[in-house]
Amino acid sequence: MKYVFPENFWWGSASSAPQTEGETLSFGKSATIWDQWYKEQPTRFHNGVGPAETSTFYKNWKQDIALLKELNHNTFRTSISWARLIPEGRGAVNQEAVTFYNQVIDELVAQGIKPFINLFHFDMPMVMQQQGGWENRDVVTAYAEFANVCFELFGDRVKHWFTFNEPVVPVEGGYLYDFHYPNVVDFKRAATVAYHTMIAHSLAVKAYHQRNDGGEIGIILNLTPSYPRSQNPADVKAANIADLMFNRSFLDPALRGEYPQELVALLKEHGQLPECQAGDKELLAAGVVDLLGINYYQPRRIKCRDSLVNPDSPFMPEWFFEAYEMPGRKMNPYRGWEIYEQGIYDILTNLRENYGNPNCYISENGMGVENEQRFDENGQIQDDYRIDFVRDHLKWLHKGISEGSNCLGYHMWTFIDNWSWCNAYKNRYGFVSLNLETQQRTIKKSGEWYKATSAENGFN
Ligand code: BGP
Question: Mind listing the pLDDT tens digit for each residue in 350-407?
């Protein structure tokens, strides 16, 4: 069977400023929470490799955009670093950053690659974190100002904007499970961070729409379909609560302009509702997106709790459910994530049936592999497993589209092996391999495959 995708399908990949730019504390850029955390606890980072060690996109942007072109990308996502553009968090704009982002955007456009620009990829400026980060409504306002500066400076050429990448991750990582700075475990504070993020999102969407720039604005969510262990009502209820907390707490405001009543009632019952201000309801309603980015890596397998929760234990999502390992599941052993290709189709079906079939695209999907060293005689990495991974996901995506889903593209995570949060370079994801010592870039076999797939607008 031949899998042909719709005309003008977006074939590209995704990346982010903090994972590729390098020059973390130079050219006018101020520190983010990652620089600070690395300074405080370098051992939390794999092999002690911190955020300064990247593919140095800040200097190699031209070469990298030539590679994107070589890979036949028609779209490419990266982010603008708030700490680079406005080093004090609010106020003066760093002109070196303006020059850099202008050059990148101009070159992408010149090469026929549509720039997709995201405004926040986990990289809170440290000056803003010192004021409470997303817990502080003033920081929310400062983010909206930053968004406006970006629209003003680059909106003539950027027509696809995103307010946040995976807003649930700083909530989980920073305020629930201790794997991101500021390492807090406190549900109420997590709920506040989640709520304020969506207020910030809505302010940016509202401001962008008021500009009438002729572009689109969206949000990028890592949707994790929650599958119950059985159809037993207790398992179904548990999976529904996981879905409410991790998916619908962002998906519903982004697509419906309001929170699910079930979630509000649950948080209220347990005294965990964040504080709202007058006018928030209307603001959230103005935050409905034009385009949804879907990052899909893995599903959630959920069952009801085997034992009752101790009511004195701190309130956590796990009061309501437990994760379990589905027997026979396929795994990516390096990242410890289940591989379940059908998940991509299930997400599209849910969006079509329950959310009015919004315009969307797969904004991340990818396979991180440790010790990628299957070189051929020309030094090219023979990553057939990555080709299988992408092809199998694309087949399910194709099925969703053929049943009517408005899915407009597919972006792989990622273009070039990059630095990643606490994992540093442990898992390599790129279509292009990076030699960290020499900065040499070499297209992998999967990159060649993707190039041909994009040229053919599909595969056999
Ligand atoms: C997503 C992030 C990316 C990227 C990717 C791979 O959650 O948006 O920034 O890092 O996951 O995850 P990791 O690098 O942690 O393996």
Answer: 999 999 999 999 999 999 999 998 888 988 999 999 999 999 999 999 999 999 999 9
Instruction: Output the pTM of the full model.
Output: 0.98
**Does ligand 1 have an atom closer than 6 angstroms to the CB of 413?**
yes
Neighbour tally for 184: CB within 10 Å:
14
> What does each C-alpha distance from 271 to 265, 266, 315 come to in angstroms?
10, 9, 10
Active site annotation includes 53: no
| Domains contained in the chain, CATH given | 3-459 (3.20.20.80)
Return the half-sphere exposure (C-beta side, CA atoms, 13 A cut-off) of residue 297: 14
User: What ipTM score was computed for the predicted complex, to two decimals?
Assistant: 0.98
Instruction: Tally the residues of the chain.
Output: 460
Judge whether residue 1 has pLDDT over 80.
Answer: no
Query: What is the predicted pLDDT for the residue at 374?
Result: 84
pLDDT tens, position by position, 178-223: 999 999 999 999 999 999 999 999 999 999 999 999 999 999 999 9
What is the atom index within ligand 1 of the atom nearest the CA of 220? 8
CA of 421 to the centre of ligand 1 (A): 8
The reported pLDDT for the residue numbered 241 is 98
Nearest atom of ligand 1 to the alpha carbon of 420: 14
Dist CA 165 CA 222 (whole Å): 8
| CA of 420 relative to ligand 1 center, distance in Å | 7
134, 197 contact by CB (below 8 A): yes
